[in-house]
């Protein structure tokens, strides 16, 4: 596994993540880590015919989560190289199949893409959590959900939200994802704070069943074929669009 760090920033988190990753896995193509100066640059991975690129902001590269972020992205690269259906299935195709004949609010369509990303993350983190401690990830999920709940709108729901507040519906799905990932790997005690946060998220979004979404994420089969994965993605997307009452025939 060949990792090279480009740009101004520390190499240690990415090389440390490489050491952890190589205890169980490997990548056949080299990895180029590009540290960006823009503090708002999100962490994302690009896949090319002969290499992978991990793009990350300098702020994230120097954070306490830098090694864990890198490890997570290496896991996505591994899933891509092994042509796992979660990483080869066209999200646009699945959404077309799930939402054909329906008019869907733009923000809800954006949420559907986020749900598809959650499913990819489940499979990536099955790798991540097999080689690294889970404490930072659980703390990150807890803090992220708490922040979204603190930022929730206090006014009645509107068709077009005028503030940048977190949307209660997708916050509830995010809570379901967090619980599913943690329960999938037995990371939570029954009294963990994440359950209280998820309960609060459910109260804010009564049209979204956190339990049903949690079950869908948690029970994704380890090694689906293309048809099986496509059906899972179509089903969960359709469930969200219909269940939240925002799609109209």
TrEMBL record:
Q: Which Pfam families match?
A: DUF5781
InterPro entries, alphabetically?
Answer: DUF5781
Q: What is this protein identified as?
A: DUF5781 family protein
């Amino acid at each position: 596994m060949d990792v090279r760090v480009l740009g101004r920033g520390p190499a240690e988190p990415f090389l440390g993540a490489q050491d952890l990753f190589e205890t169980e896995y490997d990548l056949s193509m080299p990895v180029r880590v590009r540290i960006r100066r823009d503090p708002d640059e999100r962490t994302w991975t690009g896949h090319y015919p002969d290499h992978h690129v991990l793009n990350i902001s300098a702020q994230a590269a120097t954070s306490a989560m830098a090694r864990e972020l890198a490890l997570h992205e290496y896991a996505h690269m591994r899933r891509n190289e092994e042509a796992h259906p979660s990483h080869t299935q066209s999200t646009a195709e699945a959404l077309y199949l799930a939402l054909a004949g329906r008019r869907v609010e733009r923000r809800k369509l954006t949420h559907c893409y986020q749900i598809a990303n959650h499913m990819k993350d489940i499979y990536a983190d099955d790798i991540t959590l097999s080689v690294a401690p889970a404490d930072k990830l659980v703390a990150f999920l807890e803090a992220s959900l708490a922040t979204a709940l603190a930022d929730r709108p206090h006014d009645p729901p509107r068709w077009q939200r005028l503030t940048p507040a977190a949307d209660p519906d997708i916050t509830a799905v995010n809570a379901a994802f967090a619980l599913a990932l943690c329960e999938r790997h037995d990371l939570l005690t029954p009294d963990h704070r994440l359950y209280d946060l998820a309960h609060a998220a459910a109260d804010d979004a009564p049209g979204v069943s956190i339990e049903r979404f949690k079950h869908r994420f948690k029970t994704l089969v380890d090694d689906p074929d293309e048809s099986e994965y496509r059906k899972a993605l179509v089903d969960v997307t359709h469930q969200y669009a219909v269940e939240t009452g925002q799609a109209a025939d």
